[in-house]
Amino acid sequence: MTAPRTEPRTVLLTGAAGGVGTLMRGLLPGYGYRLRLLDVRPVEGEPDAVTADLADRTALREAVRGVDAIIHLAGISVESTFEKVLSANIEGTYHLYEAAREEGVGRIVFASSNHAVGCTPVPRGGDPLIPVTTPHRPDTFYGLSKSFGEDLAQLYWDKHGLETVSVRIGSCFPEPTGVRMLSLWLSPGDCARLFHAALTAEHVGHTVVHGSSANTRLWWDLGSARALGYEPRDDSERYAAALLAEQGELDPENPAHARLGGHFVTDPPIWPY
Ligand code: NAI
Ligand code: 15L
After folding, report:
1. Residue 175 within a domain
2. Chain centre distance of CA 251
């Protein structure tokens, strides 16, 4: 019989100064994790956080040394030039995986995105939910970098035995701010529940999961996330009446509404730096 997996205690959180990082800094210690923080920007109120770029292999090796697992959030989180996405997200994620391999870290939770499959048509009345096996259909260079990250994770599992849960996050914000987000919203509490499941489930190899709450208007299947032990508690529906009154229903004839990636398909927000 295989011994149960030891629960990870010390977790490196990259991208700790960002939106999701800030939410998780508040919530994950409640699950018993000791967080080590890293970001290219200083993390407010956290003088011990490592300030380093994902390009800095020496800093990454030091940062991952001795941790039980990594939650990898750092990177460009919207569209940018190919060169910037290449450096921060593609090369940066490769550098982090190399550091993890060299230091013997066993598991990474990788923040993938709905934009890895953003050109997938939105299911309409009676269509099945989008399965986690749906082919990569990135909607931007940003989405392409997330497709790459998922493939990198598969490579490091197959070749090096480094486990990853790739979480295709929908929209993780304190509240949904648009009608599209009613389908994709991942509440902060459910995000912490999902990351905890991804850190503690046994034998994940490389598992891809969809990251959303139990939304009434869900577009994609949460089966592989639930199989890890994720039990979402939130539903965006309580925000629906107000958002629909303000913005109206999504229009299937509008190219910015017809695909999973929404406005990233037609007019993506651009990284400001
Ligand atoms: P964010 O943009 O608020 O945070 C990203 C953080 O990464 C920033 O603090 C930034 O300083 C840091 N960073 C950027 N380049 C870096 C580099 N080269 N080296 C070190 N740090 C660097 O993004 P957010 O919303 O917190 O998202 C976190 C992760 O989750 C990102 O990877 C994003 O792509 C992914 N994601 C987020 C979603 C959401 O709804 N918030 C949806 C899908 C995916
Ligand atoms: C993402 O991947 C972005 O990082 C985030 O800022 C949101 O735009 C989210 O997707 C979304 O699609 O709502």
Report:
1. yes
2. 27
Which pLDDT score, from 0 to 100, does residue 125 have?
Answer: 86
Read off the pLDDT of residues 4-52 as tens digits, 9 standing for 90 and up.
455 669 999 999 999 999 999 999 999 999 999 999 999 999 999 999 9
Distance (Å, rounded) from C-alpha 237 to C-alpha 26?
Answer: 25
Give 66 Cα–ligand 2 centroid separation in angstroms: 31
Is the pTM higher than 0.90? The answer reads yes
Ligand 1 centroid – CA 243 distance (Å): 26
**Residues 267 and 82: beta-carbon distance below 8 Å:** no
Atom of ligand 1 nearest to the CA of 41: 11
Looking at residue 194, its amino acid is L
Domain contains 220: yes
Domain count, the chain: 1
CATH at 37 = 3.40.50.720
Domain assignment of residue 80, yes or no: yes
pLDDT tens per residue across span 54-64: 999 999 999 99
**Domain, as residue range, for 215:** 10-264
270 domain-assigned: no
Asked if residues 179 and 243 have their Cβ atoms less than 8 Å apart, the reply is yes
